[in-house]
Amino acid sequence: MMTYERPNVRILCTLHAFWDQCLSKQLAAPVGTDWRARKITDFIDTHPGKVGWNLDDLCKQLGLAMSGRQARRVFRRVMRIGFKEYLKKSRLGFAADQLKATTTMPIKALAADVGYERAADFGRSFKRVFLVSPTEFRTVWRQNKDAA
After folding, report:
1. Dist CA 96 CA 134 (whole Å)
2. What is the pLDDT of residues 41-90, one digit of tens each?
3. Burial (CB count within 10 angstroms: exposed 0-12, middle 13-18, buried 19+), residue 120
4. What's the number of CA atoms in the CB half-sphere (13 Å) around residue 82?
5. How far apart are CA 89 and CA 45, in angstroms?
6. Nearest alpha-carbon partner for 29 in 50, 8, 45
7. N or C: which end of the chain has fewer CB within 10 A?
8. CB atoms within 10 A of CB 70
């Protein structure tokens, strides 16, 4: 028999609260997880723009004695999210922090810093996650920061 819980719905009063809610969704590894998955997530979180999409190369770089296929299975089992999805969200979270911190850095340079070869791909991915383009994100953040 399946039981359903009532969803937790919250109304966020300010735009700052909304952005903080979006940015605070860090994908933390559960306590007592596989050390290999934790090592991969720690490396991704500390070097979001330096990690490539190939998990075989990352395993070799970290000195993990396992194939990319095995690492993908371990990562998904522990984190409940795929490696590429985790990497993309980590990169975009880092990009959002950079957009909040710097107002003069070109979007193209920021896209390159977080690991995207094309600024258009970065813009599409950013808009899928944050529902606004990187330029709009920066503008809205600056306006709300000045108003506060």
Report:
1. 8
2. 888 888 877 777 888 888 898 888 888 899 899 889 988 888 889 988 88
3. exposed
4. 6
5. 10
6. 45
7. N
8. 14
